Amino acid sequence: MKFSFSLFPIIKNQDTPLIKELKSVTPSPPPDLTAEEVRVTDRIRERTERANQNNVTRTRAYLDFYLRHREIHWAFLAHLVSRNAGWTMTDLKGEYLLRFLSQDDQESFFSFLERGNWLIFQDAYPQLLIYEESLKRKKPLFHLLPFFHVSSFMEVVWRRFWFDKNSPTLSVALIINEQYYIDSRVMSKEHFKQTVFATFPFKLQDAFNMNVLLFPMVRNNAIQLIGEPAHHFLYVKERIELGKRLYQLVFSNQHVLNEIIQWAISSSHTGSRKDFWPELFHPIKEGSLDEKRVLKKCKLEKGPRIYSPTLSVWKDVHHEPPDRRDWFINTPALSLFSLPEPDFSGNAQKIYCHSLHLLESLI
To answer: Which residues 6+ apart lie within 8 Å of 194 measured at CB?
Structure first.
């Protein structure tokens, strides 16, 4: 599948004014706030905490924000990726993984996914709300970002976006920020290295191509899937490159973007894969225990639908506050601003279906 229409030109790696400004960033104490600014920060804090209750509330908040501010592309990309995080969370108690994972494995995997999902939201959502407040007041309020412990990297980027409205550059910056932000707070934690990354189930998921990010879209009155497998998940630069490729999948073609938005608006996020494939998945277990299921080219020819529960199988989590250090202490991230050419040659739906067939044959 190839497309020729592009919403924005590809960003090139060069010594742009933004890069020059980022190279000269020096820490400075946050300014004193007026009484009104204190009220604004308190309100943003309250809204963020309320929306950060669980994966379903986060995912909805991202979409609602994007529909109010279409220029903030990252919010919609975050919505789609957060949907995938929710599906992976419920997979842990679904048809297949439940058979391979112990209770401890399930808890560890969920804790890893939930912590990352929560951390990114509590860092990114205040940024989005500060931008929204700036629009209401018709003046930039990005000096409030340090009060939410947002990286100095993003403060520079938001100030420039206020004037140039370069949505791709802002999106790439937010992709870079989120991945560096969780790198030391989740990915490098010894606890998760031992209880998740070093385990057989995690390696099994990678070997079976089960970590496929899927973006459903409505085309010709039917649901189709695009996306990409997530390999080399432990490396920050690989995650950033994946994020940029996913951004291009969604935003490099207006027709594709419209088709994905159409699906997202019409399908509420529950955490169950039934949200995008009701013919194949169901949130309630169907059939008898020994009833045989026959899949052919990802179509159910016989037997019950695949069990895919909603997020209610997991309780809401109380999170400890994160490390407040600024990740932007050196400049390797500045070489990562270029966007790749859009590539629609992959077939995420076929890869995902192959994984389902492998798991079904194992069982």
So the answer is: none
